[in-house]
Amino acid sequence: MNHSDLLQVAKEFGDPVYVYDANKISSQFNRLTNAFSGVPKLRLNYAVKALSNISILRLMQSMGSGLDTVSLQEVRLGLMAGFAPEDIIFTPNGVSLEEIEEASALGVQINIDNLSILEQFGSRHPKVPVCIRINPHVMAGGNTKISVGHIDSKFGISIHQIPHLLRIVELTKMNINGIHMHTGSDILDIEVFLYASEILFETAKHFPDLEFIDFGSGFKVPYKAGDIQTNIEELGEKLGKRFNDFCDEYGRDLTLAFEPGKFLVSEAGYFLAKVNVVKQTTSTVFASVDSGFNHLIRPMLYGATHEIINISNPEGKERFYSVVGYICETDTFANNKRINEISEGDILCFRNAGAYCFTMASNYNSRFRPPEVLWYNGKAILIRERETFEDLTRNQRDVKDLFQPKKQKAEAK
């Protein structure tokens, strides 16, 4: 999308607003598919948590994607979007046995990441196919909050607990049809990923009836020009060959599965916000926008960097600005950032806003969540309405009958 397209969206739908480029999503999907074209059976399960709008899910389905879900609600969204249950994998963490049983009753692939639930589920439902999430004890990821494969992680069954795991499987006679890992997000070192994969291959040898091996995802995408990213093509060449060799050892072709989220939608997303105030202090020039961490929390939560472009004045002289929001506490998007000269009323564009932006948005300060727009074949299509005051109060119950106004105090004479 170019600047004029984005300005057109802001003019038509107002601001702030999220915009997603369908063509970019498709090109990322095709890039990952092509990188592993040498693997006979490849399955991409889109990670719904990254961006869960039902129209995005329908786009994924049209490309042949499956779904990776982490909640019962995401499972139901996938089914509503038209995905077959067998094309959805359910990989929760720390949920109740009842939630897993409810998902299983819907027919989706179950993925269990702890011994307690595995034993309980296997005892009650030994014939239901189950995937097991393994923790390989490999540290990967660009931030401690998104590194999930290390030894202190709450995710997965430790490789050191494999003997206990095998005893549960043997005693319950349960059906293990998949092995899974996820080391973390923003993976840069392919060799670390390949090392973790070897641990998964070794674990897979314990299970004779596997149908697939799921290697998770977490591929790093660029956040600015020249930024480092995961070399998907190199990974596809190296891991694809190793996977095929393992299948030869195993005795049949298995499905190689990934669960990309950010990789597919991050770069496709743009967040547009208007500048309300340009404020000069003794040392800083603030550009205050009509948004805050209620709409885009990643810079504050993860220290994430989002490139910010003044699409109203893209050729203007660059100056240093600290871009801040309207939330009544510190919510800084960028400190002393070089941006083309900003005037009040300009539209700023935050790039890489496709993943974990709307899905982590909130109504903090009783602010409305913005609309979502899909840019498809040169047209802007509204895929979520802007919230209204009625949306804020819809599920509230006013107990005004319980309280009486305080009587006015008598005036002193």
From TrEMBL:
Its cofactor is pyridoxal 5'-phosphate. Keywords: Amino-acid biosynthesis, Decarboxylase, Lyase, Lysine biosynthesis, Pyridoxal phosphate. Its EC number is 4.1.1.20. It is an enzyme of class 4 (lyase). Substrate binds at R298, Y302, E329, Y356. Pyridoxal 5'-phosphate binds at G218, Y356. Pathway: Amino-acid biosynthesis; L-lysine biosynthesis via DAP pathway; L-lysine from DL-2,6-diaminopimelate: step 1/1. It comes from the Bacteria. The keyword Lyase applies. Transmembrane segments: none annotated. GO terms for biological process: lysine biosynthetic process via diaminopimelate. Signal peptide: none annotated. GO terms for molecular function: diaminopimelate decarboxylase activity; pyridoxal phosphate binding. The active site is at C328. InterPro entries: Ala_racemase/Decarboxylase_C, DAP_deCOOHase_LysA, De-COase2_C, De-COase2_N, De-COase2_pyr-phos_BS, Orn/DAP/Arg_de-COase, PLP-binding_barrel. It catalyses: meso-2,6-diaminopimelate + H(+) = L-lysine + CO2. Residues 24-266 form the Orn/DAP/Arg decarboxylase 2 N-terminal domain. The modification N6-(pyridoxal phosphate)lysine is found at K49. Homodimer. Belongs to the Orn/Lys/Arg decarboxylase class-II family. LysA subfamily. Specifically catalyzes the decarboxylation of meso-diaminopimelate (meso-DAP) to L-lysine. This is Diaminopimelate decarboxylase. It comes from Zeaxanthinibacter enoshimensis.
